[in-house]
UniProtKB/TrEMBL annotation:
Lineage, opening ranks: Bacteria, Pseudomonadati, Bacteroidota, Cytophagia, Cytophagales
Name of the protein in its database record: Peptidylprolyl isomerase
Species assigned in the record: Spirosoma montaniterrae
InterPro entries per record: OMP_Chaperone_SurA, PPIase_dom_sf, PPIase_PpiC, PPIase_PpiC_CS, Trigger_fact/SurA_dom_sf
Keywords recorded for this protein, A-Z: Isomerase, Rotamase, Signal
GO molecular-function term, one example from the UniProt record: peptidyl-prolyl cis-trans isomerase activity
Length: 459
């Protein structure tokens, strides 16, 4: 199989990391079916949006034949997943969908701005995105199924490195290790009391006969569950945050809780049913206005903590574990990690958060910043200390220094070869046709079946 297959697979997996296009090619007739894999279709709209996603991020797009091959691979993964009965739980899809919607709200500033930008309601946008998220999860599960046993040895890494011509060794950018201690801005008692009263008023309306689901759609600030009437589906014990789960499990079916506070805000919970070790609940969530929270308290707290660390009365790692509100980094002593590779080494370039880049650029290795205000990925107001732990200067790739990166490259290559082999074996299990407009594209390195036009497409 041509090497382009591996390349396009990698490119394809990047599509889902890009903000959803939601059919922005308005005014252009792109709804024509251009490829079919069993009962799965690739529309011309899909190809155009894949192309524009690169343009929108100021990246050079691959050739459209290469993009089309990636999209066909996607559909082939889905078709084979259906044949092999590979499924993903709705809860996983819903969680990812909620995360994406929260990210969009953060990027656009408000729900209203999103609606105005796309000309569609949040419910419609979310509905359009849900299938994309589900497909992504299925494809990821298929890839994991194919490559789950893949491992590499130090000998393989060394062999790979030694086979690279010395004059072709890549130049590695500067990388840093950074730790953080985070303190969230807390709502005042007055703000909490106001939210609590709103929830108690809603609870009374339900007790007086109004529909919980309807009120959840109207008032809940949990974007993911609100459109489903606050319904969170069945959850296994341990899946929800402790305050929520503890309150829900004390209820009888159809009973409502008092107001419950968690890291996400204030909840009114209604238990619907239990099933063995699982429970089915819905809620109405209200959050404080994070733009109005006072940062003075967490700033003062971190100032005092920094003073202890600077005079060596307290180690940064210990302080992070004990006092940081960011649980995702606290257990690692505050150390930030690259979400894609899991490495603690972060590229100090345009991919880094701009405010962090600016601060580190003024700091010496081993120093700790003063408290810095920032906004978390889920929109919370917070203050943090940054610890500039180490820096690796730009350099030509080195076996010892860059072993982790080289290991990831070798592992990725091995996984790609396994996926290539899977495609070679599986392509006969599905029927692929491509529209004559793209007959020159060599899908899977061949033009077989590409002369047949797929029926049912638009003009």
């Amino acid at each position: 199989m041509k090497k382009v297959l591996t390349n396009t697979l990698i490119l394809f997996m990047g599509f889902f990391a890009i903000a959803p296009a939601f059919g922005q090619g308005q005014g252009i007739s792109l709804n024509k079916i251009i490829a079919k894999v069993d009962n799965y279709y690739v529309l011309k709209t899909d190809l155009e949006e894949a192309y524009q996603s690169y343009v929108g991020q100021n990246q050079t797009p691959p050739q459209k034949c290469q993009l089309l091959e990636s999209l066909v691979i996607n559909k082939m993964m889905l078709a084979k997943a259906e044949i092999d009965s590979v499924v993903v739980e709705d809860k996983l899809v819903d969680n990812e969908l909620d995360s994406r919607m929260q990210y969009m709200i953060q990027q656009f500033g408000s729900d209203k701005n999103i609606v105005e930008a796309y000309g569609k309601s949040l419910e419609m946008l979310k509905s359009e995105l849900r299938q994309q998220v589900k497909d992504q999860k299925v494809v990821q599960k298929m890839q994991q199924k194919i490559t789950s046993d893949m491992k590499v040895t130090p000998r393989e890494v060394k062999k790979f490195f030694e086979e690279i011509p010395k004059d072709s060794l890549p130049y590695m950018p500067a990388e840093v290790e950074v730790g953080q201690i985070v303190r969230f801005a807390k709502p005042t008692k007055e703000q909490k009391d106001a939210l609590k009263q709103r929830l108690l008023d809603i609870k009374k309306r339900v007790q007086d006969g109004e529909d919980f689901a309807k009120l959840a759609k109207e008032f809940s600030e949990d974007v993911g569950s609100a459109q489903n009437g606050g319904d969170l589906g069945f959850a296994k014990r341990g899946m929800m945050v402790a305050p929520f789960e503890g309150a829900a499990l004390k209820l009888k079916p159809n009973e409502m809780s008092d107001v419950v506070e968690s890291d996400f805000g204030l909840h009114l919970i209604q238990l619907l049913e239990t099933r063995g070790a699982e429970y089915h609940a819905r809620h109405i969530l209200l959050r404080p206005d994070y733009n109005r929270l006072d940062l003075a308290g967490p700033t003062k707290y971190l100032d005092s903590l920094r003073a202890l660390i600077v005079v060596d009365s307290l180690k940064f790692e210990k302080a992070a574990k004990e006092y940081s509100d960011d649980k995702s980094t606290a257990d690692a002593g505050g150390l930030l990690r690259n979400p894609e590779t899991g490495s603690s080494r972060l590229a100090m370039d345009g991919s880094m958060e701009y405010a962090m880049f600016q601060m580190l650029d003024t700091m010496a290795v081993g120093s700790i910043s003063k408290p810095l205000a920032y906004r978390t990925e889920d929109g919370k107001s917070a203050v943090r200390l940054l610890f500039y732990k180490s820096k690796i200067a730009p350099h030509t790739a080195d076996y010892k220094l860059d072993f982790e990166k080289l290991q990831n490259i070798v592992l990725t290559n091995k996984k790609n070869r396994a996926i290539d082999e899977w495609f070679r074996k599986s392509v006969a299990d599905v029927y692929i046709t491509v529209d004559p407009e793209f007959s020159s594209c060599r899908i899977f390195g061949t033009t077989q079946n590409s002369a047949a036009q797929v029926g049912g497409g638009g003009n």
